[in-house]
Amino acid sequence: MLYLPTDPPDWVSLFAECKREAFHLEVRDAYAVPHESERFRRFLDGEPALPDEHKNRWNDLIRETTGRGVTVSRVRVVTVPHSDYHRWLLSVTDSNAEAGEDIRYVPRHLAGDVPPDDWWLLDNDRVVYNLVNNAGRPAGLAVTTDPGVVAYNRGVRDRLWALATPFAEYTQR
Alpha helices of 21-172 — where are they, by DSSP H? Predict the structure, then answer.
């Protein structure tokens, strides 16, 4: 396993290497991402949203990646009722979908066993774990191409994808 303690992680390089598919599994009910804290606070206080340069850069990266023919998808395993953080995410996910991400949701009570960590599966041959510290803040990445780990994560992806509801449909419920 290779550890890349970059903050923020170098997603531009990782996605540039991606040729076919990037899949993300999210399993946490809340994240302590420093650049999101003010936007999240404003949401909780009922204040108007502010522009977010980090999100704009992310969506530009997704547009560039999908423009090269790479599919970008994610499944969010969520506790119902939703945490405040996931209520906020639901309110801002439309821009991710418009940029080209296929984001889907699985209620935790329907998901069965899920791994405790978030990860990306890139081109079905590399897993990039999102590391977090004890406070839930990003702490870098761990990358592996171990065939057993990759096969396990492919199986998790396939099982959860079959259970997942697309973002637009999920928000209509």
Answer: 37-44, 53-67, 84-92, 94-99, 108-111, 147-163, 167-172
The H or E element spanning position 13 is helix 11-17
Max distance between CA atoms of the chain, in angstroms, equals 47
Q: For 155-172, write each residue's pLDDT tens digit.
A: 999 999 999 999 999 999
| Residues 113, 106: Cα–Cα separation, whole Å | 12
Q: Hey, which residues does 56 pair with through a beta bridge?
A: none
Q: What's the CA gap between 12 and 64, in Å, rounded? A: 10
Residues 6+ apart with CB under 8 A from 31: 85, 132, 136
- 132, amino acid identity: V
Sign of CA dihedral 24, 26, 30, 32: negative
Mean pLDDT of the chain: 90
Instruction: Tell me: pLDDT of 6 over 60.
Output: no
Contact status, residue 71 vs residue 21, Cβ threshold 8 Å: yes
Distance of alpha carbon 162 from alpha carbon 80, whole angstroms: 19
At residue 44, what are phi and psi to the nearest 5 degrees? Answer: -65, -35
Instruction: Give yes or no for a contact between 124 and 118, defined as CB atoms under 8 angstroms apart.
Output: no
Q: pTM of the full predicted structure?
A: 0.91
Pairing of strands 71-78, 101-107: parallel
